[in-house]
Amino acid sequence: MPESGDELSILGFGAMRLPEKDGVIDNVKATALLHHAIDNGINYIDTSWTYHKEQSETFLGDALTNGYREKVKIATKMPHWLVRNRQDMDRFLEIQLKKLRTDHIDYYLIHALTEGGWEKIKDIGVREFLDTAKKDGRIRNTGFSFHDNTEVFKEIIDSYDWDICQIQYNFLDESSQAGTEGLKYAAEKGIAVIVMEPLRGGNLVRNIPPEVSEIWNESDIKRTPAEWGFRWVWNHPEVTVVLSGMNEISQVDENIQTASEAYPNSLTEKELDTVQRAVEKYRKLMTIPCTGCRYCMPCPAGVDIPGCFELYNSMEIFKNRGEYDSQYMYLIHHMGVLGNKTSASLCMNCGRCKEHCPQHIDIPTRMEEVEAQFERPMAKFKVTIMKLFMPFFRNISLLKNRQKSRN
Questions:
Q1: 150 phi/psi in degrees, rounded to 5
Q2: Are 268 and 260 a contacting pair, CB within 8 Å?
């Protein structure tokens, strides 16, 4: 529970995977889905400027009429990569308030922070902006969502008086990004922790390796992979809300049922052992045996070694959708689109990392594999274009969303 005293449902509704029709949100189906979730107790709704090609906030503004706005807490996010000065922060927030048809945002987050993104947004006055917007009532609570390493997470946590933070967390990501260490660090400071990607974007319930399915099936307690994933996250008392991007009423009902039975520290040692066996099996299937321990860090050349290996392994395990997701995340978070460049191609082959790796991974050699996979000419071209046209994207995005907010 945040310091605000808000009673938040432990299951939150993520409005980034709403049902679509012909490439846009299916308003009828999505509204029925959202209302069903709210009517059955979900009261934390998460969206952002970017979701559904910038349609999600407008959809929610329409769907949360007729008394539904008063039943929920809305969380949305500032797209810091489009913000170029202090005045932009107010511009984006005012448009978001109009799109959401509300006079305040309950939880306003800086979206997808990395080290470079935080340094940029901090330098142009984001802390002053948050203080002002909170004081005048446009924002009730402040926070950030995060995609970097534990050390950076702690630095950001300590750099402002946050109310909440949002991290990727699941049984495969105990040591990735903020990880368990970051989860506990934030909770100890009284900051509410919102968990995203509890099922790794659905990868933990789709295309499950047969060796992992066998472990779930052998358990005396029969649960779906989704139930195992959610129950593991909710087992941590530091977790405030777990987000799920549900797009079917059956998913809403299943997740609500799981939430009704999930309590902190409720999993038995035998159940935790089952999850750990699944984790170990996933790890054995990974091409690079990196555990995310970070003994190899910091890299003198600036490579995020565990982060690069994590995406490479995800691509190999989950195939198809996992390959697309991994390539996109690598391009955005490691090739410098949203902050500092931390890609494999920065490796100088100095060998310092090899000396500290408990798994005895030949890190420089494996970095060559990561570079070959993710930093092909087309990927580099996309990064160049995205950086070059970011000001253009910003202006188009502002113009388009101003028009939406007036309609």
A1: -60, -40
A2: no
Alpha-carbon gap, residue 51 to 111, rounded angstroms = 11
| pLDDT at 384 (0 to 100) | 87
Whole-angstrom CA distances from 286 to 208, 309, 347 are 13, 10, 22
- State the burial class of residue 283 (Cβ atoms within 10 Å of its Cβ: 0-12, 13-18, 19+): middle
User: How many angstroms separate the first and last alpha carbons of the chain?
Assistant: 36
Tokens standing for residue 267: 């999993």
Q: Which CATH architecture has domain 11-267?
A: Alpha-Beta Barrel (3.20)
Spatial distance between the Cα atoms of 347 and 395, rounded to a whole number of angstroms: 36
Phi/psi for 75 (5° steps) reads -115, 125
103 pLDDT higher than 90:
yes
Domain with CATH 3.20.20.100 in the chain: 11-267
Backbone angles phi, psi at 354, to 5 degrees: -60, -35
Phi, psi of 384 (to 5 degrees): -60, -45
User: Contact at 8 Å (CB) between 347 and 303?
Assistant: yes
Residue 393 confidence (pLDDT)? 79
* pLDDT for residue 381 is more than 70: yes
Cβ contacts of 268 within 8 Å, gap of 6 or more: none
What SS3 class is residue 4? coil
Query: Does 298 sit behind a cis peptide bond, omega within 30 degrees of 0 on the bond before it?
Result: yes
pLDDT of residue 363: 96
Q: What is the mean pLDDT of the chain?
A: 93
